Amino acid sequence: MKNIRLKIVLISLAFFVILASCKKDDQTIPPPQEPLARKILLKDIVMPHLPSPYYHFEYNNDSVCVKANFASGYTIYDILYSGDKIREMRNNIIVNHDTLRYIYDNTGKLSLIKFINQENVNYRQAKFTFDGSSINNIEWDLLSNTGDITIDRRLSFEFYPDRNVKSIEDHRYPHAGLPESTSITTYEGYDRKINVDDFSLVHDGIHDHLFLLQGFRLQKGNPAKETLVTNGVKYYTVDYNYSYNPDGTPSIKNGSLLFYSGTDSGKVFNVQTQYSYY
Question: What domains, with CATH codes, occur in the chain?
Fold first, then answer.
């Protein structure tokens, strides 16, 4: 009888041990946290036959862009912030000390960039209008000493449903002896990789200041084709192919550019953009 009771006690004890173990195993264990995504720190954009590097960027210890260099020193900007928003871009080359001052509306959207010279005169500005969270228009104005405003350039944007820009209409108003013109650039065949140079789509090269996009993007991916039509005449197409880094950023963009009009009509040129990162 004692042996039977002992067996019952041992069996009961084993049952409770197994039950306790099962309860412990059933507890929800939180999954391991994913590591924070590494910030993409674009260093240089290089294009053959153009000042090199064409764009160059530097960052602080928090991986925030604090300096932008265009055309190997043609303009060099110190970038200042208020919180996580750009407050000013200050050109600090010897012959130009313009300040680009970012102005935001009461919802936090970028509404205006003032171009202020070293005499503290606001002589130019870029105005931004949005359709919801998407950029709709950017308009560049010249301000005279008498307070008159002259529009000299307006960009209008159309987007695909995935929020990659489909077309950019660049309307130039008659100014300084130049005639009025309209160019439409269309982008097709976006990949699902990472775009790092969509800021360049609004930059007018040596004719105007570079500014960095704040609060909106134009391209999430990289287009396979670009077509330019100027004043209703097809000017060129470029077919692109890319080499990528393991993180999905482009390392090289190669393009085959075919001119349809102008003095180079019918000619094909190879173009290339190289990207490097920190």
Answer: 41-277 (2.40.160)
